[in-house]
Amino acid sequence: MRTLDHAACARAIFESIGGGENLVSAAHCATRLRLVVADAPKVDQKRLESLPGVMGVFCAGGQLQIILGTGTVNRVYEEFIKLSGLPGAPAAQKCTAPVLPLPQRLVKTLGDVFVPILPAIVAAGLLTGILDALGRALPAVAAADWFSFLKMVSGTAFVSLPVLVALSSARVFGGNLFLGGVVGLCMVHPTLLNAWSVGTAENVPVWHLLCFNVKQVGYQGHVIPVIIAVWLMSRLERWFRSRVPAALDLFVTPLCTVLITTFVTFTILGPCFSFAENCMIGLARQLSTVGHGIGALVMGALYPVTVVCGLHHMYNVIEAGLLSAGSLNIWMPIASAANFAQCGACLAVAFKTRDPKNKTVAIPSALSAALGITEPAIFGVNLRYVRPFVCAMVGGAVGAWFGTVTGIGATAYGVTGLPGFLIVGGYILPYAELLALSGGVAFAATWLFWQDVPAQDKTPG
Length: 461
Prior knowledge:
This protein is α+β, with helices and mostly antiparallel strands and about 450 residues long.
């Protein structure tokens, strides 16, 4: 297999979009080069789709999105930025935000907050899964000092999740990261009653602040109140900085920003949005268990549709809430079933197609989906031909139903597919059956109902 020339690929993409005069901004995510162009008709999309290394091309949210795959996109992006001379992601975000409808902007914001902290959550979840497996296999190990030390390490990200969310939110909203960190730390301060201990506490201390009775309870297990609090903090900080004289800014702005933010958070925002978040998590639990798995079946079918619409980042809030509350992530099996079904459908296309270019795209796309990254499979293969995408929806529905009725749960989020074995603890066999079922149904359905067509007549079918 020939190694892709990243510089040549970037140059070809640059030429295909009409060069620098047609390029407004550039950014990238885990698998896609995301470009904003001045004049879309100038883009040679057919040439783009035929380039080596390009798995698919589509437009969404005012962006031209070119699927290159994990790892490859980073290297091509670096070469592309050298050619264009653009600063990259920040400009892209500013240019694209206004064209998105409000619901999509809200979901995009959630994604921007949670994606940067995923490595910490994934590392903690994987370590938790490994330790749980070790504790079951070798009970004597659980008494060792090393085991205790590693348990502390694995739990830190979840215990301090509000602080991580606050720091990331401050970056997204343009606030001072350290002021954001202070707000997050206030919400889990050691003098507050731990939210997980409220149920067993004999009495909950209360502050009487003006006309408010504020329970002295921390926000462990919550993320939405933290995001809203830091959004308010960022707005207040900008307001003060635009009005306070420069000589007093260092003293007045941080003090007033933190005091007002924490007071409003503990008296109004925190209680209101904690209630809303608890309702949302309760609804997610209900959806995944209602009707003997029927709710999960529906969500398994619709999950890839939310990926196409860019709404799947909202699930991070649900999964983080489930884990922070001390329960297993019961949403992960739904996501894993849906993702592995995309792998099965894409693999069927790879085996059945007679077009060498399609095989070249479909095989690595299927592998990527098996590892939990489905954009290449969805946008580069399955959605292009429609029927494989529908067959994957069916496979995801069946797998999600199976995952719910067998009670599979995970110790982390952000990990699906084959890597998910590391975070499902004692559910390894049912999880293997879930992957086989969802991928197998999607593969079989695609093989039966999708027909390949000659390269000169590629129409959905």
